[in-house]
Prior knowledge:
Distance between the termini: 30 Å
Largest sheet: 7 strands, mixed
Organism: Enorma phocaeensis
Strand order of the largest sheet: 1-2-4-3-5-15-6
CATH topology of the largest domain: Aminopeptidase
Shape: elongated
Radius of gyration: 25 Å
CATH architecture of the largest domain: 3-Layer(aba) Sandwich
CATH class of the largest domain: Alpha Beta
Protein name: Amidohydrolase
Number of domains: 2
Amino acid sequence: xxxxxxxxxxxxxxxxxxxxxxxxxxxxxxxxxxxxxxxxxxxxxxxxxxxxxxxxxxxxxxxxxxxxxxxxxxxxxxxxxxxxxxxxxxxxxxxxxxxxxxxxxxxxxxxxxxxxxxxxxxxxxxxxxxxxxxxxxxxxxxxxxxxxxxxxxxxxxxxxxxxxxxxxxxxxxxxxxxxxxxxxxxxxxxxxxxxxxxxxxxxxxxxxxxxxxxxxxxxxxxxxxxxxxxxxxxxxxxxxxxxxxxxxxxxxxxxxxxxxxxxxxxxxxxxxxxxxxxxxxxxxxxxxxxxxxxxxxxxxxxxxxxxxxxxxxxxxxxxxxxxxxxxxxxxxxxxxxxxxxxxxxxxxxxxxxxxxxxxxxxxxxxxxxxxxxxxxxxxxxxxxxxxxxxxxxxxxxxxxxxxxxxxxxxxxxxxxxxxxx
Length: 421
């Protein structure tokens, strides 16, 4: 009897494993059939980029695609959309109508103020605006996943909420969507980010910190203006600002532990009114990126100390007039990361599981992870053979489009696996 029971259990396991393999095979087949569509949509969105808070035509185009698929959606914002894919498995919903489990999938949709210089035939037609961070790919991969999952509803033991989110680049979009209720009743969250530092064909989804705390700041410098030929009569605000830029770099090299990654970047320095006038005022603005709470908490104090005393030494004044915590670090949940790794192995094979140290770039997907467990996976696109080596936000940014279908496969597999638990 024991042997029979044991044999029965093994038989059940094999049957379940076989069914699981069949689902993965279906996901691969449907995704590959949709690959031309995915690439075509990526090129469309790349050619017609819109910056943060202006993604109206982008959202219109996404709605058009969902209409063609017969997928229901709501538009809580003019620049954002939320679609729903309802599972039709027997236990997908409770007797009271509540979803057994609900997963949120997110794709960000905004572009950057970057003038494209790729020379691609589908380069941006909107002057000074470019999808230089891969969000066009995110839209396309997610639309591909919607196409696949809408044909597999019998395998979905719950509900999928697909969020096409605006304004990631300015760090505001996720909170806008949270305020619109996209996390209501959600049990977990998943997102992809196309990434230029991960090899094409691999996907990285390790647990723990993956992207940094993101803060913004501004320093105003006040000097004394005078004739450019009589510098001794004034206090040069530009000189003080320039010294502040240099001295701020000592925060990372001298005030923080070498084991605490951090970046202090000055992206703007403005000052002066004429070429023969010692500037009486200037300002600089920048961003801070950190992983650890200790470094994050210390940054405003350290910046203020340096700007105040540097300016004072040069006869000027400087104040940290703005310091904004935009969003926290992206920290992948351990269980979600393990689930993602298994999903990669199922649809792409073990060799596709990538390894990546993480980045001090920021991502407002972290705001969702403050409320529900989840994972952000880096879809590698680095391929020197086709020139796909440029960094995110470069005017030459290029992707290996062959990886897009892999992102679609992973999204669909993760969704099925999550709802099956």
